[in-house]
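NADPH:quinone oxidoreductase family protein structure dump, as promised
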Amino acid sequence: MKAWVVRELGHHRDVLHLEDIPAPALQPGSARIRVEAAALNFLDLLVCQGQYQEKPPLPFTPGVEVCGVIDEVAPGAGFQAGQRVIALPQLPHGGLAEQVVVPLAQVHRAPEGASPAEAAAIFITYHTAHYALHRLAHLKPGEVLLVHAGAGGVGSAAIQLGKAAGARVIATAGGPEKVETCRQLGADEAIDYRSEDFVEAVKAFTSGRGADVIFDPVGGDVFDQSRRCIAFEGRLLVIGFASGRIPQAPMNHALVKNYSLVGVHWGLFHRLYPDAVRAMHEELIQLYEAGRIRPLVRHVYPFEDVVAAMDALGGRQTVGKVIVSVS
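structure tokens r here:
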């Protein structure tokens, strides 16, 4: 079978190579899946460079999120051959391959009616946003939710899940096209951070009160500014640091406004609480099948063009999730 393989660490353009490798054999307690679509995540770029916190042994195939059809499955698994599923491959045997063997604990049913590209895009981003907004921030109907990078993968999921929860949603994005995308996703207010001061816009939208929940996958200056427009007893969700700078927070400011700084590490939660993750997945499937959420997929690359897909992702040239069509 063909797979993208990394044999030495470095920039993805230098170290990713499409190779013929042996097809994986079924292991106990696993499913062998014919991959139809793989979703790219920023960690795929980092893992190639050896900069991700988890470092798989060399050689490895990147890709931690796929949709595909089960070719073979261990007995008594609750799944059957021919069933379309979502799976989270475990590195070093990642999903940028024609076939992958995945432990059954990391295999989940795909929503009815979803294309392989949409199904591949629904797991990590929507689970991260759902976990952050509901389990950690306890978002309530009528509250104001500020979502940064609203046209990105996890940001677009947060906008939709916020609206589904009955929140009033403000989104920020860079440029008119991405701002319009946020509006199409359901944001009540969308702000172009390149030309507007989002702090003043949030204060205007909330009559000076500020946002109850802030969803921040950017960090850096965005985090610093967000503290200026958070409501009393608000919750500032630290999703990641796409800006490249990990910010520092003065605790006296948190004390004065009684707001919470909440770290969001979905990956560890996913490993520690698998039953909660499955329950969350069923809720997300119901929302999808009811038409209340839909992954934002505008960039689908052929399997042979994985390097170009990663270029686009790393260059912040994309809207929503980046998908690789494998078969």
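The radius of gyration is 20 Å.
lmk if u need the other ones
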